[in-house]
Amino acid sequence: MAQKFGLLVLYLLFITAQGFSQSKDEVRQYGDSLYRQLQQVKDQEKKAEALLDLSFFWSDYDTTKALSYIREAEGVLGSVSNSTYYRGLKSFYRAAVYFEADPSKAKESYMQAEGYLKDVKAENYRQASRYRARLWASYGALLQREGKAHEYVEILIEKVIPLAESIGDSALMGNNYQNVAMNLMNLGDYDKADAYYEQALHFLQDKNEALEERFTLYSNAARNATLSKDYQKSGRFLDSAAILATQIPNSPYIPIYHAVSGSHWAAVKNYAKAHAHFEKGLSAAKTQNNEDMVATLLFDQFTAYQMNSQYASAKEKLLEALPYIQQKPSLRNKQMVYYNLANTTTKLGQYQEAVKWYEAYKNVSDTLLSDRSQAHIHELETKYQTAEKEKALLQVKTESQQQQLSLQNTRMLAGILLLTTVVLGIVSYMWYTALKNKKKLAAQKEMLLQEELKNQRQQEKLNLYNAMLQGQERERSRIARDLHDGLGGMLASVKLKLSAVAATVDKHQIKKESDMELYTIINQLDHSVNELRRVARNMMPESLLYMGLEAALKDLCDAMTNAELKVDFQASNLRANYPQPFQIAVYRIVQELLTNAVKHSGASQAWVQCSEEDGKLFISVEDNGRGFDAEKDLSKKEGIGISNIRNRVEILNGQFEIDATLGRGASFHIQLEVHG
Predict the structure, then answer these.
(1) Mapping DSSP to helix (H, G, I), strand (E, B) and coil, where does residue 676 land?
(2) Cα–Cα distance between 137 and 160 in angstroms, integer?
(3) CA of 192: how far to CAs of 185, 236, 264, 373, in Å?
(4) pLDDT tops 60 at residue 325
(5) Whose CA is closest to 595, among 545, 548, 639?
(6) Are 89 and 56 in contact (CB under 8 A)?
(7) Any coiled-coil ranges, and where (predicted)?
(8) Contact at 8 Å (CB) between 647 and 609?
(9) Per-residue pLDDT at 532
(10) What pLDDT is recorded for position 409?
């Protein structure tokens, strides 16, 4: 199948699209309506809980208003708000407010809520357990955003599902089994995902009140079965989803259901049914004002047409998707659409138009030019120019024949003289050519010898540099391990002992100035432990060793983000099993580029894109900083950082190009051959 959009595959996020498509006025009117309704509630505790739920609604739109409703709920509760149960609830809803704005603060609030709610007994135990399941699921979702998908799955299995089982909430169990399955599917483990989808179905299939959850479950399970090429199972799931689709026709998941159905029927080569589903999905997505989903469905249609060799229709769908792509900031999506337009027009024999799309692909990709795209452009230009040259040759040949006829009599009269002259000329030319070629061949051999010696010296230099890098990385890893396991453990042990002393002092209520200094020392020691771990992680990130390249790069970008610089990371088609030396080299390249951006660019925004395509790894790092004159500055003196990057790229047989302009930011583009 053709390649999918990198950032347009938003099926899992699309479930929230309906809410975001509402206007500000509609949101405000709906929120005010809820507030007026809860004013009629007489029971103070129920009214306070309704205010907290209203805060949860506003957390997606207005954090100030959301926090004000939490304070109002606290006032309604009075002294009851200090109970363990309501302290846990307030922490839970504050975390929801910070979920998007401040993820670190949100995680801290979720753990505060867990500390309170786990001790709730008796009458509020069941409801507290339900909140604990929600907070752990939300905490895991924050970890997933940091690239820690495996940790999210562990939280769902070890925390959320056992809590749902402890209170016998089958709907909650079914929804979270489905969450586990979706994450496993995203990680490419389709067999395990299928097992969890079956468990989710066991808990939700008889829940008539959970139509939306069951509809979502059948659609996602069908996608997993299609990806694992079990088309009979995906067909059964889609049949079940189709029944539910008639009962909830306005579900925000309707376009995804049709997208999954279209992909299923295209996979089994029933293209008529595939396109019927794609069209229904497009209609639903346009009704819901979800342009990302419209573009995704159009690209799915293009894929189906291409699979069926209907290149004219495939081109039409790409052109329909083009306006949606062009209004979005993602260069990766534009690059992919232009590339497929170029290939499709080539197959249609529209070579001049194909040249235009290849030029667009080249411009959008900045300096990410591959040999293959260059060859395609040259081939198309050659075919076009050859047709014109053939016409000119035909005309010249005709004129030549006429001249030969007119000169035939003259040639016959001077035949002997002309033949003698031609023979002498040929012999002289052959002798001269042989001598010239002999000299040229000798010069070429000398040139090749010099080039071979140069390449050998360069390779020896790269081998030496590679050995140095390998040694550095091993030493980094050893030092990081010693810092983390040795000194880190010792500092942590000292902190624990000091904390025990502080607890003993606090227990006997002895308040002295020295006691305050003791707490200050504990805090300083705590900061020292965190700083030590940060240094160890920078030297050799654990996520790179245990969770793969994508997770490590995501952690790096998050770590580099601060108040002055926001780093946005996007990944596409990255594998989880790259060789360790290759992963380390890529990680160090991106780390060096981001460090340069922080130190020298003065940028407020940086973008990191990493993707694999046709056995090549593409890396782009861009910023909106002050930029520099690449040709002028680098020709004088190239810094150690850029030199290190070039050496790493050369070791990996890659290409490194810089696109920078003074005052307009800088872009760095790298292409590496993937091995292993």
Answers:
(1) coil
(2) 6
(3) 8, 19, 20, 39
(4) yes
(5) 639
(6) no
(7) 370-404, 439-475
(8) no
(9) 63
(10) 66
Q: Which two tokens stand for residue 634?
A: 């680098």
Question: Amino acid letter at 412?
Answer: M
Distance CA(357)–CA(5), nearest Å, equals 18
CA distance 151 to 187: 12
Q: Is the CB of residue 207 less than 8 Å from the CB of residue 170?
A: yes
What pLDDT score does 580 carry? 80
From residue 478, give the alpha-carbon distance in Å to each of 473, 481, 628: 8, 5, 37
Quick one: which of 102, 104, 6, 146 has its CA closest to 553?
146
Place of tokens 């995804």: 256
pLDDT for position 11: 36
Tell me the three state secondary structure of residue 614. Answer: coil
What pLDDT is attached to residue 10? 31
What is the CB-side half-sphere exposure of residue 610 using CA atoms within 13 A? 20
Report the relative pairing of strands 605-613 and 566-572 from DSSP bridges.
parallel
List the one residue out of 86, 111, 84, 106 whose CA is nearest residue 95: 106
**By the 8 A CB rule, do 568 and 606 touch?**
yes
Element (H, E) at 673: strand 666-673
DSSP 502-562: HHHHHHTT---HHHHHHHHHHHHHHHHHHHHHHHHHHHS-HHHHHT-HHHHHHHHHHHH--
Amino acid at 450: Q
For residues 617 and 571, the answer to whether their CB atoms sit within 8 Å is no
Phi, psi of 547, rounded to the nearest 5 degrees: -120, 0
Q: What's the whole-number average pLDDT of the chain?
A: 79
| Beta bridge pairs of residue 567 | 606
Higher pLDDT, 431 or 607: 607
CA nearest 593: which of 531, 648, 550, 636? Answer: 648
| Beta pairing partners, 619 | 610, 670
* Element (DSSP H or E) covering residue 616: strand 616-623
Q: Could you read off the pLDDT of 229-283 as tens digits, one per residue?
A: 898 988 888 888 888 888 888 888 889 888 899 899 988 899 888 888 889 888 8
Contact assessment for residue 172 and residue 133, using Cβ atoms and an 8 Å cutoff: yes
pLDDT reported for residue 402: 65
CB atoms near residue 569 (< 10 Å): 20
Contact assessment for residue 180 and residue 195, using Cβ atoms and an 8 Å cutoff:
no
